[in-house]
Amino acid sequence: MNPFEDMRIFSQVMESGSFTAAADQLGLSKQFVSRRLMALEERLGVRLLNRSTRRLDPTPLGQSYYESALRLLSEVEQVEQGITGQTSEPRGTVRVSAPLSFAVAHLGCLLPEFLQRYPQVSVEVDLSDRSVDLLGEGYDLALRIGVLEDSTLIARRLAAIERVYCASPDYLARKGTPSRPDELANHDCLPYGHGRQVQWRFVEQGKARVVTVCGRMRANNGELLRDAAIKGMGITYLPTFIVGDALAAGHLVPVLESFAPEPLQLSAVYPQHRQSARPVQALIEFMRERLSV
Q1: Tens digits of per-residue pLDDT, 236-272?
Q2: By its UniProt entry, which InterPro entries does this protein fall under (predicted)?
Q3: Same domain, 140 and 269
Q4: How many angstroms separate the most distant Cα atoms in the chain?
Q5: 178 and 213 together in one domain
Q6: Which residues contact 48 (CB under 8 A, 6 or more apart)?
Q7: Residue 103, φ and ψ in degrees, nearest 5
């Protein structure tokens, strides 16, 4: 078997997490996949995977080989598509990581429309609020909200994400409505994230301001915090795609509107070796079009 086929098998094992799952994806036997990986390690003279009864873990050299293999396989894919005249019509599978709440609010409508437009493209979506390792975990594209970390990934801006400080009318009737960020020290807050203290950002007299808030309930899920705010548990700070309906219905009302900071940015990030991948670029352009930058 040629080296590129061994790369494909190894990459699938890395993405699937087991020989059995990789074999199912490739339509091969588990024994064949295991033999090819052993032969690959023997040819390279290094161990790529640490095997146990429960899991497979890449060695440092295995991780490096995987990342290089992804780049090479992508280049081979682009060459083959060019030779077969497929570059004009995107085809293939795009593995996407997206924040849970945003995906539930938007992707359920957008992705079916995208797939109807591009019938030769498939999409695999993983919903998670953690910052995934695109190369290490085999993703083609990730959607991220907020300031991006410095990295070798390519970023494309998709849309602005408006956020709002808000609370229920019942809570404000009991506790009063804050008129300045400093007054949050006297309020129950419902911060997004973990840790005993969370910082909320404001703009006061044209200058950035940070206020530390705390409360009896913290979560890394916006829907939980929204529902707690509706029940009168405190003030929360969430994107409008989570609290928009509750605001429109009057279940929540905005506070401290004149101190709100600039919107966050929704970005698509992807590895450099996916820059020329037609399905990836088609999905990015579709989202830019539909989300109205």
Answers
A1: 999 999 999 999 999 999 999 999 888 889 999 988 7
A2: LysR-type_TF_proteobact-type, LysR_HTH_N, LysR_subst-bd, WH-like_DNA-bd_sf, WH_DNA-bd_sf
A3: yes
A4: 73
A5: yes
A6: 10, 37, 40, 41, 58, 59, 61, 62, 65
A7: -65, -45
Q: Which structural domain range is residue 57 located in?
A: 3-84
In this structure, the answer to whether residues 167 and 254 fall within a common structural domain is yes
**How many Å apart are CA 203 and CA 196, to the nearest integer?**
23
C-alpha atoms less than 13 angstroms from C-alpha of 270 in its C-beta half-sphere: 24
Task: Confirm whether pTM is higher than 0.85.
Answer: no
How far is CA 195 from each of CA 6, 109, 152, 216, rounded to the nearest angstrom? 45, 34, 29, 11
Pick from 258, 159, 144, 267: nearest CA to 209: 258
Of the candidates 142, 151, 99, which has an alpha carbon nearest to the alpha carbon of residue 268? 142
For 289, residues 6+ apart whose C-beta sits below 8 A from its C-beta are none
